[in-house]
């Protein structure tokens, strides 16, 4: 079964393929092979955005499509930046500007608890869709550290770690990440679809 990874973000694309690239029976297609429409992230939640993207891409391409949306939720900021994480500092999205704004918002605040959350959606052209979510708890570092990853990775220290996500190897990050937890939640459905075992019409 051919399935399209519905993201043009190179960091996300790399991680998704590393996590789900060897699902038996799935031939993954990327946006460099099949162009995907640009989908406005108008949802009020990460899950709504993931579904919007997956369904729009599945309809436009006629392929099964995987969409996802991720956000950073900081306790002391009432869950911000949350669903606006990618555009926290405005348009166009800018990782360094987002990190600077986050650190400025936390000046003088001792509570650095935060979590990364990912919502993933798998949609078929016939309208069926399945979702899964993953969370990674941690804290915000006082300054960026590391050169790996992308987004807020230089600032996020996973619970039980002393290093930021950007200081971990790609393999280490993928073993514990919020993205992996969400994507693994869709693995059984992908396997069932690939094997032709899924006959349900449930959305």
Describe the fold and architecture.
- The protein has 203 residues and is α/β, with parallel strands linked by helices.
- The protein has one domain (2-194): Maf protein, CATH 3.90.950.
- 31% of the residues lie in helices and 23% in strands.
- It is built from five helices and seven strands; from the N terminus they run βαβαββαβββαα.
- It has helices at 10-20, 46-61, 95-105, 170-176, 178-194, and strands spanning 2-5, 27-29, 64-74, 81-82, 113-123, 129-140, 156-158.
- It is globular.
* End-to-end CA span: 19 Å
Number of helices: 5
Q: Average pLDDT across residues?
A: 95
- Give the total of domains: 1
Quick structural summary:
The protein is of the alpha/beta class. The protein has helices at about 10-20, 45-60, 95-105, 170-175, 180-195; strands at about 1-5, 25-30, 65-75, 80, 115-125, 130-140, 155-160.
Primary descriptors:
disordered C terminus; alpha/beta; 23% strand; 203 residues; globular; 7-stranded mixed beta sheet; Maf protein
List the helices and strands and how they pair.
Elements: E1 2-5, H1 10-20, E2 27-29, H2 46-61, E3 64-74, E4 81-82, H3 95-105, E5 113-123, E6 129-140, E7 156-158, H4 170-176, H5 178-194
Parallel strand pairs: 1-2, 1-3
Antiparallel strand pairs: 3-4, 3-5, 5-6, 6-7
Helix pairs in contact: 1-5
């Amino acid at each position: 079964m051919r399935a399209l990874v519905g993201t043009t973000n190179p960091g996300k694309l790399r991680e998704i393929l590393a996590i789900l690239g060897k699902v038996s029976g799935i031939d993954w297609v990327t946006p460099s092979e099949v162009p995907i429409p640009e989908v406005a992230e108008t949802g009020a939640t990460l899950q709504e955005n993931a579904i919007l993207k997956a369904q729009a891409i599945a309809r436009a391409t006629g392929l099964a499509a995987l969409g996802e949306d991720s956000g950073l939720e900081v306790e002391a900021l009432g869950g911000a930046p949350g669903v606006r994480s990618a555009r926290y500092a405005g348009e166009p999205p800018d990782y360094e500007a987002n990190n600077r704004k986050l650190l400025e918002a936390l000046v003088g605040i001792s509570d650095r608890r935060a979590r990364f959350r990912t919502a993933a959606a798998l949609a078929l052209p016939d309208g069926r869709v399945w979702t899964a979510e993953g969370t990674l708890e941690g804290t915000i570092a006082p300054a960026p550290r590391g050169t790996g990853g992308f987004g807020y990775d230089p600032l996020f220290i996973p619970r039980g770690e002393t290093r930021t996500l950007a200081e971990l190897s790609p393999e280490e990050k993928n073993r514990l990440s919020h993205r992996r937890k969400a994507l693994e939640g869709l693995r059984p459905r992908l396997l069932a679809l690939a094997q032709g075992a899924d006959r349900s019409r449930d959305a």
